[in-house]
Hints:
The chain is an alpha/beta fold. It has two domains: 3-202, no CATH class; 216-351, P-loop containing nucleotide triphosphate hydrolases (Rossmann fold), CATH 3.40.50. It is built from 14 helices and six strands. The protein has helices at residues 3-29, 32-53, 58-80, 87-111, 117-136, 146-161, 164-167, 174-197, 199-202, 222-231, 269-285, 297-303, 306-323, 338-348, and strands spanning 216-220, 238-241, 251-254, 291-295, 326-330, 350-351. It has a six-stranded parallel β-sheet. It is elongated, with a radius of gyration of 24 Å. Residues 226-347 form the DUF835 domain. It holds the Pfam family DUF835. Keywords: Membrane, Transmembrane, Transmembrane helix.
Amino acid sequence: xxxxxxxxxxxxxxxxxxxxxxxxxxxxxxxxxxxxxxxxxxxxxxxxxxxxxxxxxxxxxxxxxxxxxxxxxxxxxxxxxxxxxxxxxxxxxxxxxxxxxxxxxxxxxxxxxxxxxxxxxxxxxxxxxxxxxxxxxxxxxxxxxxxxxxxxxxxxxxxxxxxxxxxxxxxxxxxxxxxxxxxxxxxxxxxxxxxxxxxxxxxxxxxxxxxxxxxxxxxxxxxxxxxxxxxxxxxxxxxxxxxxxxxxxxxxxxxxxxxxxxxxxxxxxxxxxxxxxxxxxxxxxxxxxxxxxxxxxxxxxxxxxxxxxxxxxxxxxxxxxxxxxxxxxxxxxxxxxxxxxxxxxxxxxxxxxx
Length: 354
């Protein structure tokens, strides 16, 4: 067995194994990012099969499909972690990606004596592969080591794939290229598994339930909330607030118009809902009462009308009821009129907090 074939078989086995492991993880945690990444590995394995069988069209086709799943998984992870992608970064990507693809195509046509469109499409997919790695950099706040490592490996792997159209026809380089690709595949799988097995990805660790934790929706004043913070200091609370000085165990997302890792804009209510759903679902699977805190309703009311905020809170209350969690609304009741407070309590079925 030559080195090229060995590298192909190793990469194939690795991708199929990783795909099945992540698929099993998706069945347990039901996170969309896991499902898409599983499909990414399985699609990529079909690209290798295509090359082994001489089905040249399948090589770039399955690579492109795989990269689509990879990018979709990255975006899903950002959404699950409520990490917004800065507008200026999106603008930069929109301005540069089409230009980079065009330059890449022109360069390939000029440098390679006998250019092949099939090889070229494989390389173009590598550009978006690397782009997915750069986008993944946004989760470094939540996954300092594993997220940074995965982002770097995916980016490097994408860059390596970009040399495919230029060097694949070079017979002596093919074994080296596949060996390098196999090494990056192995590192990639390790980094993916490291992220997926982290306590952060699974959201909840087993902890003792504080007495203050009760199922339902509760409205507490800012003064009373101080006692909640102290009682829940060692509990993995999910909080959306205007400040960040909360216990270290808490996952805090700032409500602000300033862009930053984990920050959520006041009009991005859907991101709060999605992160809350993911958190509560995992807490429920781990038999833990998930606690969600929203401090800053007055701020949200500055950017949304009362009806929109009420619908948003009603959706959160539905998830709280579905997964048996606790929603704490920190609210100065003087900020709302009597009619709004009555409606709020009725729609949310507010309980009496301690």
